[in-house]
Amino acid sequence: MIRTSIKITSEKLNLQECYAFVEDDSCGGISAFIGTVRNDTQGKKVTQLDFSTYKPMALKEMQKIAEIALKKFDIYKIAIHHAEGMLQIGDIPVIITASAKHRKSAFLACEFAIDTLKETVPIWKKEHFSDGEVWVNAHP
Fold first, then answer.
1. For 78-131, how does the pLDDT look when each residue is reduced to its tens digit (9 = 90+)?
2. Domain containing residue 129: CATH number
3. Neighbours of 128 (CB within 10 A)
4. How many domains does the chain have?
5. Counting beta carbons within 10 angstroms of the beta carbon of residue 16, is it exposed (0 to 12), middle (13 to 18) or buried (19 or more)?
6. Beta bridge partners of 44
7. How many CB atoms lie within 10 A of CB 97?
8. pTM summary value
């Protein structure tokens, strides 16, 4: 049985796909984290975001995060999907869903996954403003 769904795509992310992947009759809780493109950062108006990635390494790191979450939080399944390319205000750059017998495990797994993704996965974000642009999250 496959317990992880990892994806990086330039297509629109699909919450229903992530939900359907983790859904199971044995699970009493499904948690989701959905990141959205907001219209400002530190008081400056954002017009759009551009996500770039070193895809082979990013997929490998995302898989590692999913496998750690499975063990650490006693979850049944986890999906981690991230967008790449240009995104507009309101678009969804990341969706994480996790299912577990009990809700707390699913909540904790989603929080762990997004926090670790931001720290370790080679995905970079360029914020575009009306008067310029800047790279942020320059890691690892």
1. 999 999 999 999 999 999 999 999 999 999 999 999 999 999 999 999 999 988
2. 3.90.1170.40
3. 14
4. 1
5. exposed
6. 41
7. 27
8. 0.95
